[in-house]
Amino acid sequence: MSDDLWRLSAADLARGIAAGHFTSLEATESALARMDAVNQPLNAVVDTLHEDARAAAKAADATLRRTGPLGPLHGVPVTVKINADYGGRATTNGVVAYKDMIAPEDGSVVRNLKAGGAVIIGRTNTPCYSMRGFTSNDLHGQTLNPHDPAITAGGSSGGAGAATAAGIGAMGHGNDIGGSVRHPAFCNGIYGLRPTAGLVPAFNPSQVAERFIVSQMAAVQGPLARSMEDIWISTQAMSGHDPRDIWQIPAGDTFRTPEHGPCKVAIHAETDEGPVDPEVSAAIRQAGEMLADAGYEVVEVTPPSLWEAMEFWLLSLGNEMRAGLGLLMEEHGDWKMKLSYKVLTDGIPEVDTRDGFLKMYARRSELLRKWQMFFEDCPLLVTAVTWTKPMPAEHDVTPDLDYDWFRRATAPMSGTPTLGLPGLSVPVNTRPGRPMGVQLLAGRHQDQRLLQAGVALERAIGQILPVDPVLPS
């Protein structure tokens, strides 16, 4: 049985370890063996931690015997993204110039996972500077999608998505400023949560300069997993208090006891704001039918404009990058990152005055108010992650890419982060070789509604099992 422990969910592993059916070390050895067997062609994990993981697993087993489990992931093998500080190892963020940038201590994500007893078996790939929806870089190479190497594994948490889908760890940590958890979850046929901004701390000690205000308000940490229970308990584990993060707010019982029953749900399956793939629309409508069967009141209502939100994301984040991260990209980024930066900022108006900045953020208030009023009537929205199926690998750097088409296709996932809204990617209509999914959106601090609707959808979808990677032909 121990050889197959890598197939189990995080929750089942935690229960089995706590009950003494098997040890954390046995679960960890199984996960490491799976990583050794399938990671080489996938290139999902770019910093393997065999010895650290074995030591952590032995410590988890000893702690369990002595005092009981430390948290909901006690003894469970997981992965973290290479842009999260792990003390004593390089936080490369996919950048060649940062290959020796050693973190002085653990950041919030790693600290909280370790404190809860989780066993980190490896660190996953990301695009250069974690600012593309496609995971490849000059330092670590390209991550392949285990379903089909011809399609993208997504990004920027593409390594986490591919690893988790393939059974390398029961949960993968990611972060999201424009879809970077929800997109790889969609592309790899698993679940991915972008929590409300501030619920999960994100401090990195290796960070030399403070991030600018847009990134501070929009970027979040979140889990990717093969089950909703794993999403739930992983977010709980990662939301531990860290006074180093000035934006953190108490999670309270958000990731513990369910409080809400079925509610009114809006379905948004078509739009005239961009390209719409019929398979994406069909998955959204299928999700609506599943929720209706679960007792939700499902209505066809047009939400506030996702493209309008995307325009604000492009304006605010694009201008912030011009003043900071974009300069680093121009100096240290690989050619794909530089081209992707152009896709993000080309033609976006300059905001370079005091009045321009203040007016821009007044616009944010207008947009967020529209969404808050919408969620007063319909607490949940089911829509696309992207209006297209998972795109071909490296599609964002193809010579003939239509920038406006690309921006409109990705608006559902990228428009909402600068408004602070939570979102959940759910693998509706996914099957081996053909990942698909939908996105659920809710108002700020309504994460529990997202999670409960995700659970309702999971009952209809059935179990998501690890995928045996399809190798390039």
Largest sheet: 8 strands, mixed
Protein structure class: alpha+beta
Q: Any guess at the CATH architecture?
A: Alpha-Beta Complex
Low-confidence stretches: none
User: Mean of the pLDDT scores?
Assistant: 96
The first-level CATH class is given as Alpha Beta
The value of Rg in angstroms is 20 Å
CATH superfamily, by name, is Amidase signature (AS) domain
Secondary structure tally, helices = 16
Sequence of strands across the biggest β-sheet: 6-8-7-12-13-11-9-10
Q: Strand content of the residues, in percent?
A: 5-15%
Provide the helix percentage.
40-55%
Number of domains: 1
The arrangement of helices and strands along the chain is HHEHEHEEEHEHEHEHEHEHHHHEHHEEH
CATH topology: Amidase signature (AS) enzymes
* Shape by Cα distribution: globular
